[in-house]
Design goal:
Blueprint lengths: L6 H4 L4 E4 L8 H9 L8 E3 L3 E2 H4 L2 H7 L7 H10 L2 E7 L3 H14 L4 E6 L4 H5 L10 H14 L4 E8 L5 H9 L5 E8 L10 H14 L4 E5 L5 H11 L3 E4 L2 H4 L13 H19 L9 H7 L6 H8 L5 H15 L4
Helix pairs in contact: 2-5, 2-13, 6-8, 9-10, 13-16
GO molecular function, one term: flavin adenine dinucleotide binding
Keywords: Flavoprotein, FMN, NADP, Nucleotide-binding, Oxidoreductase, RNA-binding, tRNA processing, tRNA-binding
Protein name: tRNA-dihydrouridine synthase
Length: 337
């Protein structure tokens, strides 16, 4: 089932997006974010990043294709709210990109494809993928060409400002010469991983290059933005078409609900319950329950008794155990529950 049209050309800014994150942005969490956000926000969501090598291997496809799962309830919500969903992929072999992207377009219903050319993780870099492609223009260009030739969907790249050092002008200028619809620029080099300060001046430089070389390509900024208010300040100052939020969602799952509301124990407990329910419905026993434990802190914080509640939840290993702890805490702490 194919999506049609190039939304990158049609969507007007500012654009707010939730970044692709490993073991985070699965179908359950994406749906949760939409359900606790202002209707229609975020404008764009991404899958977890998926290996083209895995998709091209008969056994590997079964192991990695869960990253592309879209539940029926998520799909209904996406369509109702008009939110776009992009599949992000990674690898270093143009032929495998060609084969994998044909498969994705034939078997799924995504609005676009994004190529990861920014992941700093060592095993990905050692593979010659992710941010390793920043220093391999020829390889990167061949991958983009193969992807573009294989797709009718829009195509974008997520990357960084350099590998071992800041190399924005050379690298972003090169990407701007490629047949892309959008580029997301994370304001760190590979060597920094997720540490140190994001260099928004370099993102601003990327915008200047875009304006001069390829003004029709959308340029999205990424790195340490934790609120819509801060996003709007960055957009106004540096001229990006939008902001991609990453780790900020862990500090505030209601990041895309910008109204001044009081998020208390009841709202946090309800969000936790909703996430557990969506995860169970989407995966059953198909994904390990402990994956959920990384989320407990984002719901169970900033209220009296949060630490003990969170500690008890970290010991649970099933949905039934989780519900028992939540119910016990709710009866004790939440009025009228």
């Amino acid at each position: 089932m194919l999506s049609s049209g190039n939304f990158w050309k049609d969507l007007k800014g500012p654009l707010y997006m939730l970044a692709p994150m490993e073991d985070v942005t699965d179908t359950a969490f994406r749906e949760l974010v939409m359900r606790i956000s202002t209707p229609g926000l975020p404008h764009i969501l991404f899958t977890e990043f998926t290996s083209v090598d895995g998709l091209c291997h008969p056994v590997g496809r079964e192991k990695v294709s869960y990253r592309l799962k879209v539940s029926d309830s998520e799909r209904e919500l996406l369509d109702t709210l008009g939110i776009k969903l992009i599949a992000q992929v990674w690898g270093n072999d143009p032929e495998k990109f060609s084969s994998a992207l044909k498969y994705i377009e034939e078997e799924y219903s995504f609005d676009a494809i994004d190529i990861n050319m920014g992941c700093p993780v060592k095993n990905v870099v050692a593979h010659g993928s992710g941010s390793a492609l920043i220093d391999s223009e020829t390889q990167a260009g061949e991958i983009i060409a193969a992807a573009r030739e294989s797709l009718t969907l829009p195509l974008s790249v997520k990357t960084r400002i350099g590998f071992k050092y800041k190399d924005t002008e050379r690298w972003i200028s090169y990407l701007l010469s490629q047949p892309l619809d959008a580029i997301t620029v994370h304001g760190r080099i590979q060597k920094q991983m997720s540490e140190g300060e994001t260099d928004w001046n370099e993102i601003g430089r990327a915008v200047g290059l875009r304006n001069a070389i390829a003004p029709d390509i959308k340029l999205i900024g990424n790195g340490d933005v934790s609120s819509l208010e801060e996003a709007n300040e960055k957009i106004a100052k540096y001229g990006t078409d939008g902001i991609m939020f990453g780790r900020g969602i862990f500090r505030n799952p209601w990041l895309f609900y910008p109204f001044n509301i009081d998020i208390g124990i009841k709202e946090r407990t309800e969000a936790l319950r909703l996430h557990l329910d969506l995860f169970k419905k989407a995966w059953g026993e198909g994904r390990h329950f402990p994956i959920l434990k990384r989320f407990f802190k984002i719901y169970l914080s900033d209220f009296p008794g949060a630490a003990s509640f969170r500690s008890a939840m970290m010991d649970v290993n099933s949905f039934d155990e989780a519900e028992y702890i939540i119910e016990s805490f709710s009866m004790e702490k939440i009025p009228g529950s």
